[in-house]
Amino acid sequence: MEPRMNAEASRRCIYPGCERPAVPAHPLGGPQPSFCDLEAHNALSAHLERQRLEAADRTTKEVDDGR
Ligand SMILES: [Zn+2]
Prior knowledge:
Blueprint: H1 7-10, H2 43-65
This protein binds zinc ion (ZN).
Zinc ion binds at residues 13, 15, 18, 20, 35-36, 38, 41.
């Protein structure tokens, strides 16, 4: 049998561009957070960052098309 990382260790922060491991689930129970231990990484900031990246991508394309 191959050694496998358990589910806790394999979970990554879902913040765009972040590759840090997500923080482990609370010992008293509850779902494991989807983000790493950076305070800046949370559901709201990840959502805003995704929108920002999309907008930046769109702007770049518009600039390309504009010529
Ligand atoms: Zn993160």
